[in-house]
Amino acid sequence: MGDENNNSKISSQSVAKGGDTPLTLGTKSISQLLVQYSVPAIIASVAVSLYNIIDSIFIGQGVGPMAIAGLAITFPLMNLVVAFCTLIAVGGATISSIFIGQKNESRATDCVNNVMVLCLIHSVLFGGVTLLFPPRLSTMRASLCASSFTAPLSAMCLSGSTT
After folding, report:
1. Average pLDDT value for residue range 106-114
2. Residue whose C-alpha is closest to residue 66's, from 141, 135, 143
């Protein structure tokens, strides 16, 4: 009983000082929370977009326009891998948050471990299948010149998804 009182005193003191605790979601205004959690996500999205733009510029200047065509064919495959792993991760984060809210940390830990294993299995399967059976470039309407850049680029990018 004494420990519960001490924990609540510590929590309320750190909230009063502006520290982030699990109680932050119940005490801060919605607009503050929206800014606090959305700004890092926006910065991450801008960083990924800038990386892709700069990567395309360097590939276009260093190799040529056909390499850009190969990158444009490979990029949706990379997005597919990221999309599925994001789907799994967001769902797992939601479920584990529910378990944490229920004070069931062992189930939350199990959920996070399952998400990690499922993401690894997905990336190994997707990367392995696309490396063993390269995408049919003719069905993607790739020209012969562009497909000569697409095969090695997709192998390099998708093999990175398995590590």
Report:
1. 92
2. 143
